[in-house]
Amino acid sequence: MKIFFKNVLANIVAILILCGVFFFFFIIMLVMGSMGGEKAVVKKNSVLTINLKTNIIDSPTEEQGGMFNINDKNKSILIYEAVEAINKAKTDDNIKGISIEADDLNAGITQLDDLRKALEDFKKSGKFVYAYGNAVSQGAYYLGSVADKYYLNPSGMIELKGLATEVAFFKEFADKYGIGIEVIRHGKFKSAVEPFLRNDISPENKEQLSTLLNDIWKNTSGSIASSRKIDTAQFRTIVDSLYGMIPEQTLKYRLADKLIQKTEYDELIKSKLSLKEKDKLNKISLAKYINSYADEDQSGDRVAVLYASGSINRGNEYNEIYSEKYIKYIKDLQENDKVKAVVFRINSPGGSANASDEILFELQQLKKKKPLVVSFGDYAASGGYYIAMAADKIYSEPNTLTGSIGVFGVIPYFKDMANKNGIRSDIVATNANSQYYSSLNGVTPYGVSLITKSVEGTYKRFVHFVIQNRKQTFEQIDNVGGGRVWSGTRAKQIGLVDELGSLNDAIKFAAQKAGLKTSYDVVSYPKRMSPFEQFFNDLNEEDISAKIIKNKIGKANYEILEQITNKKLQSDIKMEMPYQVKIN
């Protein structure tokens, strides 16, 4: 009896502790919610600052909050919000200039493009744009080079090196350890499966990667050289020689204007503002500046921006693009009478062919009721391009990775590995193809034939929708398809997109097509999670373990792991781009 009461008491204590932990987090969420409601105040002689704390995201679903990143919420800014903030600061008498103080900026290449254009426009106001760096990444310098003056720490460096990609191959590894991989694809450029088929890069993949990297580098390097007033040939020598790594060389070759400490930089800005030594330098971050004028009243006509960022999957989860969730979003927008037009912002390398098809169908229904304009972010490839085929008009950024019109399936099995280790199996079945695939025996010849037909059928369906939207023949689309990835600039030239432009350009066109003038609100879908929602969303045991692993091994490595371990991702025919390109 004594042991019984002891166990009961221990359980009661455990429950009380658990309740206490929940109450603690509840109070934290409550405090965060109340703090988020207070608007920031913009003081006179303020400087808008893009700093290390600035986290530029393309979609609300990219926001990392909750119990793992409890302080990040107020630092995450949508690219649309960031551009609008810079545009507003241009005519704000309290904002006298902009300071870029980011050694490494968490933003994609097209987001950096948009920020850079907004800063170039800001400079037309006559207000200053200065930049300061320590150990500066290539992406951060691409943005900062737009400044009137660029200042570097005396022991600092600028990692200006150009673009490169490294492709890893696993065929020899798989052969060595007895891992079989059955690959079915359509498109000689569909290189997502190449690492499992070869031990070196194919001529087709090398060609497309070289063209893609050179297109993007031509745009970015041209902008840097122009802003810094450096001859194109000399700039190539600077990059080839990595002169940015040596502080003195950055001065010699005009990458930086002066080597000074951060305190000296702040004093320089104070002098620019004619402030006295005792006066405080008022800096305000992008996040706080946006908070200072954010208006909750959105009662008028609306242009809705539906963000689709990440890989495309079947299911009902919040992060990335899950078909059930997006079908609901699209139907809500279709039925919302206040929403007069929709901009579908795509930042996706693709994913499940089935999920992509479901989303495309619902977008086609939406288009029957109101204008639907598509805007591409960093990626709109494969399935990401497929779901754009309901658009009235497609806007792409010059550096968007797009196209990749191709389909593949990858089926791993472990027959040789199992046999080497004394494992074999026998199959008892009711029908001829009840076990057309198993992890121990692989795929039957009939199974391969069936999956090949499925891949070919999916490719034809893909091309069918592209033909309808792009008003081209099968031969024309097939010629630029085959899984090949293009830059936005090339995509415009070959007719895969309509215009080169930003999200803001797409929003303006959508409003115009809906007959709206200047008095309309721009609303985002999906809505950002509240601190409470983020907290309870993070309580899922599987999500907790996933976040821990992702934080440990990095997002890119986690995505590879998930492809191997997540059964939902393995079971589909794929429309997916094989790689990502980053300017950093």
TrEMBL record:
GO biological process: signal peptide processing
MF-aspect GO terms: serine-type peptidase activity
Catalytic residues (UniProt): K190, S382
Chain ranges of the Peptidase S49 domain: 122-264, 365-516
Domain of life of the organism encoding this protein: Bacteria
Intracellular or extracellular location(s): Membrane
Gene3D superfamilies: 2-enoyl-CoA Hydratase, Chain A, domain 1, 6.20.330.10
Gene Ontology cellular-component annotations: membrane
E.C. designation(s): 3.4.21.-
Keyword Protease: yes
Keywords on record: Hydrolase, Membrane, Protease, Serine protease, Transmembrane, Transmembrane helix
EC class: hydrolase
The UniProt record lists the keyword Transmembrane helix: yes
InterPro entries documented for this protein: ClpP/crotonase-like_dom_sf, Pept_S49_pIV, Pept_S49_SppA, Peptidase_S49, S49_SppA_67K_type_N, S49_SppA_C
Transmembrane segments: 12-35
Pfam families: Peptidase_S49 (PF01343)
Family: Belongs to the peptidase S49 family.
PANTHER family: PEPTIDASE S49 DOMAIN-CONTAINING PROTEIN, PROTEASE 4
The protein's name: Protease-4
